[in-house]
Amino acid sequence: MATSFQCTLVTPERQLVDQQIKYASVPAWDGLLGVEPQRAPLMIKLGAGALRLDDESGQSQTYFVSGGFAQMKDNKLSLVADAALPADQIDKAAAQAELNAALEENAVGEEAIALKKSKVEAARAKLHIAG
Amino acid sequence: MAGKTREIRGRIKAVSNIKRITRTMQMIATARFQASQRRATATQPYTRKIAELVGELAKAAAADPNANLSHPLLRKPDPKVGKELLLVLTSNRGLCGGYNGNVLRTATQYLNATKESGQQVDLEVVGRKGTSYFKFNKIPVTKVHNQFGDSAKFEDVQELVESYMADFTAGKYDKVSVIFMAFESMSRQTPQVLQLLPLKDPTEGVEGEVSKAQVDYEYSPEPEQLLAELLPVTVKTQLFQSFNESEVSEQIARMVAMKAATDNANQMSKDLTRVYNRARQSAITTELTEVISGAMALG
After folding, report:
1. Chain B partners of A82 at a C-beta cutoff of 8 Å?
2. A42 — contact with chain B (CB < 8 Å)?
3. Does residue B263 lie in a domain region?
4. Residue B285 lies in a domain
5. Buried b (16+ CB within 10 A) or exposed e, B90-125
6. Do A2 and A37 meet the contact criterion of CB atoms below 8 Å apart?
7. Do B229 and A14 touch (CB under 8 A)?
8. pTM for this entry
9. Cβ separation A43–B240 shorter than 8 A
10. What range does the domain containing B249 cover?
11. What is the pLDDT along chain A (131 residues), one digit of tens a residue?
12. Cys bridge to B167: A121, B129, B172, B282, which one at CB 3.0-4.6 A?
């Protein structure tokens, strides 16, 4: 019985993670989702939020991811994110500025409102991760 | 005679100066090529994964008889509006051999063929070389994109694709294509016309494979919705890939062109040195003959 699984995190510009992990906390579009070894196949849409990966030595890494997809298959978790950033590389001031800009946006119409909401959520998640 | 040797010496100097420049440019192109190659390979895992996900979802959608696949990006325009959009990727700088020429020739052929079939074409250009080419040939360009610089960022490409998708779904265009230099291998790059929109139906051709043992995924949201979300992403990755490939091809073309120029300069300075030595020798011979015959006349 495997106690770990392979996890990859890729964005359009580069591959951030490719390693064995024990547990992943994935920000799905409708809430956080925990993934353990030998999970049943899964295909979900990602939201914006914190991705936590616990490796075999018990250390955990946190990333900010926004948008994209996750797939679990053959004990392999693949995360295909629109954007991803390690937690320690988040610029808090820039995230705050992003949030302010998103909050001030004057959204008219259903699509614009949804876009604004997702922007606000992403900025809030970023700030939260940065602590 | 002295005048001739001096002239040849001047030419030898000029050639070796040019050689120095072309050799430097070759080295710069090599470094840039490695950087852009790295960038292009860095995007590959993403592109591959997206393609894999689309394939899996398309299979699932094809297996489900109730699934209704009618995404606006897949829609074949009906009725046709008689207009399409063409994006041409060229470089900002010259001295890269036939790189721009090849892309632009393909673009012109495509333009002429499309116009003959009665379609109107809105032409958009990336890169200074393409812009001046179309200006010189008096071919109207709808829009010039200068925001990309030397290496395209995903966000910029994404913005561009989003505007195309909006125009396409609004029914402004029947088709959106891009012409760029595709990177096949180190020694082979060919201009390619890639149709971005409408997308090819991902369920086409999977019918035969459906019977294969399928992974029973847990989906969230429903597969059709996931597929609808994934399709715009595929368009973006396709265009981003085109940008990356054309960048790699440009650097290769420049590398090859500058290598040829350096080799030529080498050969030329060798030939010139030979001519110079011969001229010098014949000058000496003439002088000697003059001295000897003068001495003999006196004696």
Report:
1. 233
2. yes
3. no
4. no
5. bbeeeebbebbebbbebbbebbeebeeeebebbbbb
6. yes
7. no
8. 0.83
9. no
10. 32-255
11. 678 999 999 998 888 999 999 999 999 988 899 999 999 999 999 988 899 999 888 888 999 998 899 999 989 999 999 888 898 888 888 888 888 888 888 878 888 888 888 888 888 888 888 77
12. B172
